[in-house]
Amino acid sequence: MSQNKDYILGTNNEESKRLGLQHNVWKPYVLDCWQRAGITTGHKVVDIGAGPGFATIDLAEMVGETGEIYSIERSVNFTKSIMKLSSVRNHYNIKVFELDLIKDDLPEFKADFTWCRWVACFVSDPPKLIQKIGNMLNKGGVSIFFEYSDYSTWRLAPQNIAVESFVTEVMKSWRDTGGEPDIALILPTLLINSGFRISSVKPHIFCVRPNEFIWQWPSSFIETNLNRLLELGKVTVEWTMNVRNELKKAENNPNTYMITPMVLEIIAEKK
């Protein structure tokens, strides 16, 4: 499978490294969420759209040897990464499934929890995804999502027109491939219609300076996806260089603040 047919953001080594950085930035917030949702030793958890497997490994450690993690991912590059990580970390409670979430039939695991981060926003049929997730859960099982609700909230202060144009291009390319960056706005309704009860909804949004660790999450996304947009023929070399230069100027300004795109944490229980 070629990268272009795989994911709009790619699955190469550069993207895997960015996803690793992203996971480390979000890890404290994710672990807190999992604990509040009730994930603990002995549980069975499905990692939906697992990527290179960083969350899969954390989940495996959280449920321990008596628990099980089912990792579903369609990318060959990423499933290989998951299997390599699980082998290196000696996690034998991880089962990897190379499947497309929409096109393929998914195993009905009857798990206790499902975890889905920045996946529903990319799929072509979110209602179908939610239905399939429900089929994988026991009655009373819990589904956890982290998804964007207002991607255009990603801004710089002082205002930076070049970075805002980047955000616009990202949202356009996203929608051109059938995804929806603001999917969290409709997720609660989709979940309720599929027999879930919404347990909690919590926003995550940060306002950070260039010297703060969280800054690396959005800035690394800009860098890798400038190259990706150019590779896909969505933008010009001149436009790409302008965005990169303007971001550099912003990073050198000690009075710059970045407001990250709003993410909703949604926890829902299957009735």
Précis, in short:
The chain has a single domain, classed as Rossmann fold, CATH 3.40.50.150.
The coarse overall form would be globular
CATH top level assignment? Alpha Beta
Q: Name the structural class.
A: alpha/beta
Number of folding domains? Answer: 1
Number of helices: 9
State the share of residues found in helices, binned by percent.
Answer: 40-55%
Q: Give a short account of the largest sheet.
A: 7 strands, mixed
The name of the CATH topology is Rossmann fold
How many β strands by DSSP?
A: 10
Q: What's the architecture, going by CATH?
A: 3-Layer(aba) Sandwich
Our measurement of the CA-to-CA distance between the termini, rounded to an integer number of angstroms, reads: 38 Å
Strand order of the largest sheet: 3-2-1-4-5-10-7
Order of helices and strands: HHEHEHEEHEEHHEEHHEE
- Report the CATH superfamily: Vaccinia Virus protein VP39
Note the beta-strand portion.
Answer: 15-25%
Which regions contain 5 or more consecutive residues with pLDDT less than 50?
Answer: 1-5
Overall average residue pLDDT: 92
Radius of gyration from the alpha-carbon trace, in angstroms: 18 Å
What assembly state would you assign to the polypeptide chains in this entry? Answer: single chain
